[in-house]
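User: quick one, sequence for these C-alpha cells?
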C-alpha cells in the first residue's frame, strides 16, 4: 500500500511520526472515450487559445479568477507560505463525542500507520481514544489545502487510527431550500406502528461483506460476453413499481420480511440440533 502523506500527529507535547494511506479505492468500471469510427482512444491537449500553441506542464501555473478574465497567479511557494508548519502535521486541537459531529460533514477516509519510532505513542493514542469513547478533531494540510479532520480509534480491521476529512461548516448546504422536508405532515398512528415493526423485523448486525455492487457485476458479465459476441443483448433495467397505498405497501413489506426470516430461523435450528 502506497503512503500518500508522511508527517506527525501532534498530541499535546507528543509528536507521533505517521504515514497516511487511502482507506478506500475508487470502484466501478472505468471507461475510455473512443473515436466511434476507428475505436481509437481520444487524447486531450493542453492548449492556449490566445497563443494558439500547446503548453507543457512547466508552463502552467495556478490562477484565481477574481473578475471575468482577470487572474491572480498563485505559485507553489505562495501556498507553502500559508501552510506553514501544518503542511506536515495533523494538529489535534480538541476531543469530542462522535455523536456530536453530523455525518453529513464526513468526506474521505484514510488509515494512519506509525513509523517505527512512533509505535508506542501511536498505540497509546489509540487506546486512550477507545477508552474515552471520543474522537479527535484536528487540522492538517492535504493536497495543498487546509483540511478539518476527525481522528478515531477503529477496531473493524485491526486496531488502527482512522482519519476522516470533514467539510468546513460554511461548505455544508442548508436544508432550508429542500422541498417539503420542513412541511408539517400528519402521520397515522397505525401506519407508524407498522413502519416501526418493519424496522424491528429488518434490524440485524451490519456485515459489510453481505453487500456487493450488483449493477457492476451485471455490467462486467455483459462486457465479458460482448468481448466474444458482436451483438450481445443489453440487460433490462430493474422495474420500479409505483406505490399506491402507503399502509398496504408497509404491510406487504412486513410480510416479505417475515418470509425472508423463516429460512434463516430454520437454518439456525438445524445448526443447534446437529
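Assistant:
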Amino acid at each position: 500500500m502506497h503512503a500518500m502523506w508522511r508527517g506527525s500527529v501532534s498530541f499535546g507535547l507528543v509528536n507521533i511520526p505517521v504515514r497516511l494511506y487511502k482507506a478506500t479505492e475508487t470502484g466501478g468500471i472505468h471507461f475510455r472515450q473512443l473515436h466511434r469510427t476507428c475505436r481509437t482512444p481520444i487524447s486531450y491537449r493542453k492548449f492556449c487559445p490566445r497563443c494558439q500553441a500547446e503548453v507543457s506542464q512547466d508552463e502552467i501555473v495556478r490562477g484565481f479568477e477574481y473578475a471575468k478574465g482577470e487572474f491572480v497567479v498563485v505559485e507553489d511557494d505562495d501556498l507553502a507560505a500559508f501552510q506553514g508548519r501544518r503542511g506536515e502535521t495533523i494538529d489535534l486541537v480538541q476531543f469530542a463525542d462522535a455523536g456530536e459531529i453530523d455525518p453529513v460533514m464526513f468526506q474521505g477516509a484514510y488509515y494512519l500507520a506509525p513509523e517505527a519510532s512512533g509505535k508506542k505513542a501511536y498505540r497509546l493514542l489509540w487506546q486512550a481514544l477507545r477508552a474515552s469513547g471520543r474522537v479527535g478533531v484536528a487540522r492538517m494540510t492535504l493536497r495543498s489545502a487546509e483540511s478539518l479532520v476527525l481522528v478515531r480509534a477503529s477496531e473493524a480491521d485491526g486496531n488502527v487510527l482512522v482519519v476522516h476529512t470533514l467539510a468546513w461548516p460554511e461548505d455544508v448546504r442548508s436544508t432550508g431550500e429542500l422541498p417539503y422536508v420542513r412541511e408539517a405532515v400528519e402521520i397515522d398512528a397505525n401506519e407508524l406502528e407498522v413502519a416501526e415493526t418493519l424496522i424491528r423485523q429488518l434490524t440485524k448486525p451490519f456485515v459489510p461483506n453481505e453487500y456487493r455492487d450488483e449493477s457492476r457485476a451485471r455490467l462486467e458479465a455483459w462486457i465479458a460476453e460482448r468481448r466474444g459476441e458482436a451483438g450481445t443483448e443489453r440487460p433490462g433495467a430493474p422495474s420500479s413499481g409505483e406505490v399506491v397505498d402507503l399502509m398496504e405497501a408497509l404491510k406487504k413489506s412486513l410480510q416479505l420480511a417475515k418470509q425472508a426470516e423463516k429460512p434463516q430461523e430454520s437454518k439456525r435450528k438445524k445448526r443447534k440440533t446437529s
